[in-house]
Amino acid sequence: MVLGLIGLVFGFLSVPSTVEEASEILASHEEHHSSGEEASHEEANFVDEVRQEHGYSEHAMAQDKDLGHDAHEDGEHMEHVLHQMQAKPWSAAFVAAFFFMMIALGTLVFYAIQTAAQAGWSPVLFRVMEGITNYLLPGSVIVLLIVIFAGEHFYPWQNHELVAEDSILQEKSGYLNFPFWLIRGIIYIIGWNLYRHFARKNSLAMDDAEDLKPYKNLFKYSVYFLAFFIVTESTMAWDWFMSMTPHWYSTLFAWYIFASIIVSAVTVIAIVTVSLKAIGKLDFVNDSHLHDLAKFMFGFSVFWTYLWFGQFMLIWYANIPEEVTYFILRIQEYNPIFFGMIIINFVFPIVILMNSDFKRVSWFVVIAGVIILVGHYIDIFLLVMPSTVGPYWSFGITEFAALLFFLGLFILMVGMGLAKVSLRPKNNPFLVESEHFHY
Amino acid sequence: MASGNVLHVLYNDDDILMKAVKELRSKHYRIIEVYTPFPVHGLDKAMGLPHTRLAICSFIYGLIGLSVATLMMNFIMIEDWPRNIGGKPSFSYLQNMPAFVPIMFELTVFFAAHLMVITFYMRSRIWPFKKAENPDVRTTDDHFLIEVDAADHDLDTLSKFLYDTGASEISLIHNEEHA
To answer: Where are the transmembrane segments (chain B) (predicted)?
Structure first.
């Protein structure tokens, strides 16, 4: 309860400060509108010049980024640059919004896995997980609104003039058209939030239940949700991320995003658990539970690397122009964070979390967790930014404000979710086993 | 092995076994060995066995595997016979590294796994065609056996104590050749 209050206060403190900043987002948005045209002229020439040296990538990028437009014709190119700059605040908001939404979503999935698998170790953490998923409803609605209103800023296939000139996009329009895309988005968030609603309801009902009915319901819903999720997660990844570059595709993509989602979620569960335990709210959680969470952090970090590399290596090896643009853009324009991200997301967890004893030291897990979260924020940043703003990226006030805003909202909602009920579940058939869990 | 007599104490449940092991240790009786049909979780801690060092071995073996893979691919693909595969840079290991990652990964796992298993066998003194060491064949089925060093304890009090811990059967083994 007390933590909920702390979360509330902290949430309120950080929200107002970012509301001001949010207006700055808009202000900077306006600035880009006006100054974009003059300022970017030099820049554009410079980029062209640099690209001349890499004939291959220039060709490849022209195909990818400009989607058939002639990039060298000054007027149209400028239009394109302006377009990318306009997309920047949208992207900044989307990156942060999705990052926190995916944490809530991933936690929900992790929770569903635990219930569906009838895991014996985790029921003591169920209230923590439910608290985190409290952010899912506002988070997913905001994300959906952002992708809807960003429209052409994100998704070139929504531009009818472009599609009219592009036979590839015309062929894809059976799937990539606005009404169907919108309906899919709505189905996703309705499905996810329905599960969250019923899971929470049955989990709370379990506290007063005489029989196992709520437990059985929860189990049933979890199974259905997991089946629903694995499909919607894939299409969500295609709809919201891959279709930003509608010519490019990768069959591994959805899995790779899922890896990012789940590792961030487990990390946040671990961090929230440690902080709740530190203020004495989770005395029944012992360091073996923490150890297991840290094992998941370690394991999913490696899993993420595996998928990331699986995607990278095949594209790198085949070197087909329409595929390799994705990485050329990221390596040329985002070099330090592109490779930095791999170090943060792979080398760090490997080194830090390898040792079994370190996984039981709470501050160690928190440090590792923060590093992993930073790494996966960059991962989402790299999913979105290169596709929307191209080379005109930066990490400035807009990105930071968006991050703060959604962090504040996240902490607020999670705090509210945690504060409402006792953190100690009752009557879960596996609770006793979980409390005595030792490794 | 023990110079004196040994008691073979049989149990038929792993929870009772765990409890018995803890009680035996709290009374400072010496447990020579415990035989179980399956790994009992937490038994090593209850017996006070030192933490396994197999993990450290496996890490070192993994590093060896990684180095072997790196050196091997560097020699085969870069130094000895650079080959142009799909226009990939063939004169620099670093630039061609992504192509070698699967091999590096596989050999790391291969070395770690195989050497670890071999180490485990050597450390446990197991080799092909070795005669089984378990004192009672029922420990390979559904019974659990604790070997307790009888030393100079009073056998009656000891066996009473052992029955109190839930033992289903106790037999006194006079000092034989324990392998």
So the answer is: 54-77, 97-121
The length of chain A is: 439
CA A369 to chain B, closest CA, distance in angstroms equals: 23
Q: Which residues of B touch A318 (CB under 8 A)?
A: 86
B23 Cβ contact list (under 8 Å, min separation 6): B161, B165
Query: Which residue in the set A317, A354, A356 is minimally distant from B86, CB to CB?
Result: A317
Taking only the tens place, the pLDDT of each residue in A389-422 is 877 787 777 788 888 888 888 888 888 888 888 8
Say whether A438 and B42 touch across the interface (CB within 8 A): yes
Q: What is the ipTM of this complex?
A: 0.75
pLDDT, tens digit (0-9, with 9 covering 90-100), for B104-123: 999 999 999 999 999 999 98
Chain A residue numbers with beta carbons less than 8 Å from the beta carbon of B59 are: 354
Average pLDDT, chain A: 80
Domain count, chain A: 1
Domain range spanning residue A243?
2-435
- Contact present, A135 and A413 (Cβ < 8 Å): yes
